[in-house]
Amino acid sequence: MTSDLLILILMVVVVLAGSALCSGVEAALLTVNPVRVHELTGRSRPPAGARRLEQLRQRLGRTLSVLVIANNGFNIFGSMMLGGYAAWVFQKNQFSEVALPLFSVALTVLVILLGEILPKAIGSRLALPVSLASAPLLHWLGVIMRPLVLLLERLLPAISEENEISTDENEIRLLARLGSQKGQIEADEAAMIAKVFQLNDLTARDLMTPRVAAPTLEGALSLDQLRPQLMAQAAPWWVVLGAEVDRVLGVASREQLLTALLEQRGQLSAADLCEPVEFVPEMIRADRLLTSFRRDNSGVRVVVDEFGGFVGVIGAEAVLAVLAGWWRKGGVGGQLE
């Protein structure tokens, strides 16, 4: 009698352990962050199981099929075997007829609590370590079940689709907002992330200082003649114009021009001190424009229209103002409100 009950208890433990293992691993695979797994795989020395885990997640439908088959094997087939063996043990040892129904109810409760709910909660909370630890075993289990899984894929083609890591602007904005609400990142960091994507929606035309308001100098005039103009407006950069319409000779920094005046070089013209400038189309996106400012130290661009005409000037500070939150749509060109 004692040996029969021990065997019955051992069978119950095996069924519960198998069901719990399958449920916990399934919850972990569905919860683990795929971006985190991809980052671990990309390391020079990835953790054990990382590459195997990424392969399993690429065919998540096939992996879940293996787990579902194994889990139901423990829950359904194992429970049937337990029920049959328990009925034989109870009948052999002349237990009351109430013992078998009580055993069935107790087994059902244990399977629900210890085989499903608790393991899934643990698997969800410890998703990454559980997934990494179970990846090699799950791979070999898939190899053993490959014929059955391939048959299921023939019948249900949806489970054979590959999962690719992808995201978009809206998802990143949402994650940044949630991270800010949960205190994982600072509120100003989340706001700046949103403004980075705003750069893609703005052009140089939206941010530039229009030609009518841009600081310009006649290239043929001497610095002595331009002294009142330089003193009246504290623009950091000046666009130097030629005699012809839309003829831009270059740009000159106010600091360089004032230094020349202090050094008694007022006879020099603005054209003598100007520097070459890069021309950009008015429809260039602000994110590309910001990248172009890293190529030189001038920090200013002359904006031209589709015909090459001078329509405005834009500096790096106008683009950075968007990231800082100083720029408001509807402002005058690149001027800050």
Account of the 3D structure:
The protein has 337 residues and is α/β, with parallel strands linked by helices. It is 60% helix and 9% strand. The protein contains 15 helices and 7 strands. It has helices spanning 2-31, 34-41, 50-58, 60-92, 99-125, 127-144, 146-155, 169-181, 187-198, 204-207, 223-232, 254-262, 270-273, 286-292, 316-324, and strands at 209-210, 216-218, 237-241, 248-253, 279-281, 300-304, 310-315. Strands 1-7-6-5 form a 4-stranded mixed beta sheet. A 3-stranded mixed beta sheet has the order 2-3-4. α11 (223-232) links the parallel β2 (216-218) and β3 (237-241). α3 crosses α6, α4 (60-92) runs antiparallel to α5 and α8 (169-181) runs antiparallel to α9. The protein is rod-shaped. It starts with a helix and ends in a 13-residue tail after the last helix. Residues 330-337 have low confidence and may be disordered.
Please give the share of residues in helix.
55-70%
Structural class: alpha/beta
Distance between the termini: 89 Å
What form results from the Cα inertia axes?
rod-shaped
State mean pLDDT (0 to 100 scale).
82
How many DSSP H or I helices?
A: 15
Uncertain segments are: 330-337
Largest sheet: 4 strands, mixed
Give me the count of strands. Answer: 7
Task: Give the topology, please.
Blueprint (H helix, E strand, L loop, with lengths): L1 H30 L2 H8 L8 H9 L1 H33 L6 H27 L1 H18 L1 H10 L13 H13 L5 H12 L5 H4 L1 E2 L5 E3 L4 H10 L4 E5 L6 E6 H9 L7 H4 L5 E3 L4 H7 L7 E5 L5 E6 H9 L13
Parallel strand pairs: 2-3, 5-6
Antiparallel strand pairs: 1-7, 3-4, 6-7
Helix pairs in contact: 1-4, 1-5, 1-6, 2-3, 3-6, 4-5, 4-6, 8-9, 11-12
